[in-house]
Amino acid sequence: MSLDSVISYLQSYGHWIILIVLFCGIVGIPAPEESFMFLIGVLVAKGHFAFGTSLLYAFFGTFAGMLVSYWIGRKLGLPFIERYGKYIKITPDRWKVVEGRFHRHAQTTVLFGFYLPGLRQLAPYIAGISRYSFYRYVLLSLIGSALWTTTFVSIGYFFGDQIKLKYLPWIAAAALLLFLLTVFRKRFANRI
């Protein structure tokens, strides 16, 4: 999808696209959350959208995704893991390890897991399945959603005047490449 078509959708459907894309990204439907929020910030800087409204929709999309993912994890629960976990190599023993680690680091995971792709999608499900305190989860998700969305929209906003829109796909590709190189470097460093 080209940048022009993304901008066209945003102009046609407004802020609802922001909410939907971020909601989908959090519940696990592939979406480029960080680069999308960066783009939103750039578009705000270029005068296409209002900062506060865009940030609000980004926040609500993210927070709604966190709540729905937690609820799905809570409703499907451990019986789902026991029945279908074998297909993705989650044995009962592995689940106990994951659950134990999650509960030891739950506050950090929910609060700052947004910044790590994959973890932000898995953490809400793990919290729901392991019956982590709903009220604590909601509070941490509120704070984490606000920090994460404000960070990326603001970065796009503050650098938006310095970047031409035609270069955004290249910047996103470079960021993805940097992320992949970091992941591979860590994996291979651990094997040596």
Describe the protein in words.
- This protein is mainly alpha-helical.
- The protein has one domain (3-191).
- 80% of the residues lie in helices and 0% in strands.
- It contains 9 helices and no strands.
- Helix 4 (51-84) packs across helix 8 (134-160), helix 6 packs across helix 7 and helix 6 (106-112) packs parallel to helix 8 (134-160).
- The chain is globular, with a radius of gyration of 18 Å.
- The N and C termini lie far apart (40 Å).
Which descriptors would you attach to this protein?
single chain; 192 residues; mainly alpha; 9 helices; 80% helix; globular; VTT_dom; DedA_domain
- What is the distance, rounded to the nearest whole angstrom, between the alpha carbons of the first and last residues? 40 Å
Radius of gyration: 18 Å
Shape: globular
Calculate the mean pLDDT score and round it: 85
- Major sheet attributes: none
How many strands?
A: 0
Instruction: List the secondary-structure elements in sequence, H or E.
Output: HHHHHHHHH
How many H/I helices? 9
The fraction of residues in strands falls at under 5%
Share of residues in helices: over 70%
The chain-level structural class is mainly alpha
Are there runs of 5+ residues with pLDDT below 50, and where? Answer: none
Instruction: Tell me the count of domains.
Output: 1
InterPro entries: DedA_domain, VTT_dom
Organism: Fictibacillus marinisediminis
Protein name: DedA family protein
Keywords: Membrane, Transmembrane, Transmembrane helix
